[in-house]
Amino acid sequence: MESFNTLLKSTYPRYYESRRFTVGGYRWTLFVYPNGKEEDGGSGYLSLYVAIDSSSLVPAQPDVYADLRFYIFNNNEKKYFTIQDTNVWKFNAVKTMWGFSQALPRDTFKDPKNGYLFDGDHSEFGVDVTIPSAFKESEVFSLTESFPNPIFSRRFLKYSMLDQDYYMSDMFTIGGRSWNLQVNPNSQSKAEGNYLMMYLFFNANGQKMKPYDKFYVRAKLRVLSQRQENNFERQLDAWYMGYEGSYGWGVTPFMPLSELRDPSKGFLVNDMLNVEVELKILSSTKYLPP
């Protein structure tokens, strides 16, 4: 804009209106208020706005969301001063104009030493209007931290007689998913050492899983003391992927056999062992489209 200082000294017209331009199939106009848009609190400031031509709106999409980025050229720095909000703006037939009432203090703008007025009485303004494309795919991730029956327990009688490498529980359901609790009572493997091991297995139970399905689990794996409240527990934090079979996660190593067999701890009483799992957090993801 040339001779902009003349507009600064004028009370009429109140603003400069650009010619219409098209973005996203809609027609737009840039408005520059040299003395501020007073009704929006812009007195003493330079105000910048953009308006949509309401005649370009269509009934099928009455609301148009746009990202606005305004520019004022600074000749001293040879770059544009940029004003942008973090949110998109909603335009419709009721609200056709959005912008910034206090884009730049008027005194700052009109002082030639600041570089916004240059080459006598010249200034440059601009606006980028960006209309975000509609999401074709999205995910909604959520966490559930409360369950009606979050605990599954299992009791082993005649523990000293257990001779299998592992014992898998019957299937149980918590949080809308199916599980099995696996206990390795006397692990002697090099990887696990002399430990009691516990694993929480996800069981797809015939449910169709997508390759990208995954969910987060936080659970407490416990060996219950039968003489006091001093239970032994470890926290499991794991991501389970969308396999259609069955697989599990545990905490390695879990419980030393020396501690398990310590009579003072009360974990083995009358050759009986009690274990449990408590589900604390379970995530779910809603995929759009499914």
From TrEMBL:
Top-level taxon of the source organism: Eukaryota
UniProt name for this protein: MATH domain-containing protein
SUPFAM superfamilies: TRAF domain-like
Organism: Arabis alpina
MATH domain boundaries: 1-129, 149-279
Lineage: Eukaryota, Viridiplantae, Streptophyta, Embryophyta, Tracheophyta
One protein family per Pfam: MATH_2
InterPro entries reported for this sequence: MATH/TRAF_dom, TRAF-like
